[in-house]
## 1
Amino acid sequence: MKKRPDPTMRADHPLITTVVALVVVAGLVLLATRSSGEAPQSGGAPAPVEESPPPASGEPHGLTVVDAADVVGVEEAELAYDGGIDVSVTYPVIPNAAPLTDFLERELTDEVHAFEAANPGAASFEAEWNLTAAGDGLLGVRMTRTETDSEGSREGYTTYWYDTATAAHHPSSALVAGQRELEELNGLVRESVGNGDGDGSAANPDTIHPISSLYDSVGFNPDGDLVVEFDAGQVAPAGEGRMYAVIDAEEAEGLLSDLGRHVRDVATVGVEDFAIAAPPEADKDGQDEGGPVPGGPTAVNEDVDCSAPETRCVALTYDDGPGARTPELLDALAEYDARATFFVTGRPVMEHPHTVRRAYAEGHEIANHTLDHSDLAGLGEGGVRHELDVVQALVYRETGHTMNLMRPPYGSTDEGVASVTANMGLAQILWSVDPLDWKDRDASVVHDRVMAGASEGAIILMHDIHGTTIDASRTIIRELDARGYTMVTVSQLLGTTTPGEVYVDGVPDDAPEEGTEPSEDDEPSGTPSDEASEEA
Ligand code: ZN
């Protein structure tokens, strides 16, 4: 990992004065615009000055905009980033909010790194900040970033929430009460998402799922309506720009968490001379102390216990995708409440990002199968790291999830791979059943081999880039379900895994083995040379 550099403080730089002055001017213009649109004062008397806070500012389709000049002592830091692209990122430094500054620095560094790692054509990353709430112990920081690569430039948004007393920072999905409420909100967003231009139908509702990486910029407009905004290219073609949904305040009310209601109350009043009186208590470290935040689906189903005597778990795994027909497979899995693990490679993730997002949202496990499907053995640690790092970044950017499993292509691994994967927090997952679906493109043959090999604890290798495998899987899933198997993710089957270690199946070491399953010392039944002739 890159060592995080210290922020370069710009406190003495004339730029800061300029920025604040510009913000003041912008705020006055906004206020003037608002006033001119309101009913004239009775009697023509001038509007009272300094009697009450000004109204919250902002557009109906945007998050409230707080004038930085109304926050006492706010300064700006510039991110120091040591990488191969042009980076210009600023973030706020507010007196007595050091944990927020530290958090933003870490978060932005990770974001820039993921953009650079995921994108071979990455050219530049710029980001600037504004405040969207400041009051009553709460700050909202909205980042607007512009990523530029060989495809052009796209704007994206992330909004963070900070409790000034506890130093807890929250992602935007924490404004929603729970997963059920986020799913309900997702339904409303799918109905109303657009960009206000033309018919607003540019957005594809099917690409919107209740996961935190999509709900990462949520706030309120000055009227208290809930605003959800999406990055350019996230739920519509990139050229359509920012997409958003505005959920009426009354409709949103029942979906909000305590934090959400607090944010709404703060974001709907004007700000005057906001200051944080004291730093957070010394024992606070900025960690979120609340329960799980909505929008982080887990690949482990808490209703299933694979170690229970009556439960027979099996792990279906699909490599080299996603493919064009993977959504059909997801439909079949959903029908039987079955989970699977998808070992994805680089190009397919770039081509089918929405499928990755959907699979993740539906509780399947996403795991790393390298950028180029290279034989990792003998590639050298730098090469192995690159093959894995790119896919880690791609999936992180799509889902917000950091994967902890990988599968070496062809099952080919060595000490160097073990070392790199141990460093990256990735366990190596091989398999115990190989129907050779890449070789025999015959759905009934694939089906028969899987059913013959299936047993408790098995890890079954297939490839969702082959139509015959998709066809076979419909029957396989139905029959495994009928035979009493519970189809789970690899992480659920194995429980806690050790990075760098190689796993072949989920049969407990002390359990009597069924049939002729290999132990971890043996080659998996599909040997590396078998898979070596697979099409990439
Ligand atoms: Zn493969």
## 2
Amino acid sequence: MYCTVVTSSRFKGIGNGLTYELAEGSLQAGSPVRVPLRNRLTEGIVVEILEKRASDEFDLKQVKEILGKEPLLTEAHLKTARWISEYYICTLRQALGLWLPAPRWTQLLAESVITYRITEEGKQALADERIKGKKQKMILQALLDHDGIAKKELYQMCGNISDPLRLLREKKFVLEEKRVEESSAASVPEIRAHPQLTEPQQAVYEQMKGDLRPSLLFGVTGSGKTELYAKLIVDAMQEGKQAILLVPEILLTEHSIQRFEKLLPRESIAVIHSRLTAGERRAQWKKIRKGEIALVIGSRSALFSPLPRLGIVIIDEEHEWTYKNEQTPRYHARETAEELCRNAVAKLVMGTATPSLEAWARAKQGRYQLVTLPERYQRQPLPSVGIIDLGSAQFGSLYPFSLPLLTAIGERLERKEQAVLFLNRRGVASALLCRECRRRVISPDSQLPFSVHHDRTGRPFLVDHTTGVTANVPSHCPHCRSPRLMEIGAGTQKVEQILKKQFHSARLIRMDSDTIRDPSEMRIQLEKMQKREADILLGTQSVVKGLDLPHVTLAAVLLADIGLSLPHFRAGERIFQLLTQLTGRSGRARPGEVIIQTFRPDAPEVIFASRHQTEQYLESELQLRIHAGYPPATQMVRLLFRGEKAEANARRSQRSLLELVTKEGNDIRVHCAPAFFGAGRQWHVLLRGSAPRTLLAKIDLDQCIVDIDPMETM
Ligand code: ADP
Ligand code: ZN
């Protein structure tokens, strides 16, 4: 027999594995082995068992040692890893690395425990009172009561007993054995509370249960998607299966845990996030592999938990960008989950109030099942939405707070209700906007908006991040000559200062990645809001969205323009999602209000969001994409070039691609540009068309990083 082994070694050219001969004995794919490689031994994972070898040119080396009887990964994991390496174009080792913590992999093996048992002779000797030593008697008595006890426990019971124990073993009264901890059989955790679904929720639940396809659960904010997740997870537990719940943001896991702790015992839930130490990750991994964990909650990497009996994967907020990994392997959790669930015969459920265009298109084609919850729990009305045109608002020194927004906040404080204020992502540099023609000041080199920075004396200047070129702030708008230029994008700190000045007595919580470092801090702040020990929650979008706070009756976005004037085909979609998230935070338990401040009050995404017309927005956006030839109407591939010769390599690659396109006469468009966030040192080539992947096999990819279905396309 032969097998393919992916080793932990990083030598070039062997990332997809090497063939070894297997002397005898049974071995399953997924098992850890030790194999010879370049005159030394290294550990590896068997990824395939082969009856015959591919060719007999070489003398194959033999597998030296089988490190564990039980495979580290299941067949479904291995198949999915293979799919990742083919679809996202990476080595099998890179794909397997998603599931396996860093080598040494032997550290992942189930530990063996030394145990002791009493023999028949030992029992007889004890009964006949032939044992003289006090300690020896004590040991035998203990073993009689606890047959097969672990060494550690025996020592705990009887004290230091190495000498008497040795004597007992010599007399064959006691046997020493090594026991490998086996993966536990299907154990059903205690279900603490069964979710009670409302009628519309129950109907959707039954639809999902009756369909093997992935389900897209399109439910307005506050419709009870989480309740449905809970119900589906409980079902899986009762069948002896396990579940993965993916959330877009690690800080939101705390929120989910709170909810699921009411459902299941805490020790059967594992929380996976990128801030675990290597040791913690390994410990979690072993627990999960052994079958002790029923539910894994975490950000995208939690998808790669080695659950032995996966029953369901749920992706909450399916549309979020954080589901795309921006390092090799550049996988998307949605696509990968679909493949994993197919291989493991598990159900996939994707929930969202604003489906991604990709998911929407697939639901329309029938690849996904579409189920909808159009109303909030107990028919709570969606909040009323007001749009404030920042271009014509008066601020004085209070920018970015318009007067109506300040009034609305004041009202909440008087009524002892709460307000949530969304802010642009921290650290996003501000731009220079003309209040007359509403365009941003553009860099002539890249045709992209300049960012405004301040030097140490506070003097503003402009920077083009794609080229590194700097410029002075102009006195007039280069487009319309108006002098009414203004810097937009105020940071969290400034906003906090204004709020403190305006509302002296208000209790304010600021939540961004500066003030919240880990989930437990998040929990503390959320509890403050739940117990009404705070009045205003000010936070960046990534932190604040997804919250379920019943006393909030005002939600506002201070500036809903991020990215709108960037040449990004998903910019509108992103704004729409953000605004819909915002409407979801307000009035969850009593009537609420939403305020959108924007420089683009007429933009379709703003209008549709303010009217809660998600389906209409998706349809109009889908038409635009079809018309302009963007995903999901086409497929996109991005080749990213870095380093000294980034530009030259990118241009060369573009030329060879264009030649191929002309020769083959296909519909693929090839675009070459500096990458927006690359400070002029990164270039990319973007391909889009019906099947751009087919070109990749025909060109040299050595100099670039391949990004399939990219999210970053600027
Ligand atoms: P979504 O995830 O769709 O935004 P949630 O699951 O957070 O909605 O539900 C919104 C609110 O309604 C929550 O406070 C939740 O506890 C409550 N809720 C929804 N469905 C039910 C139900 N079947 N029974 C009790 N409470 C429910
Ligand atoms: Zn202008």
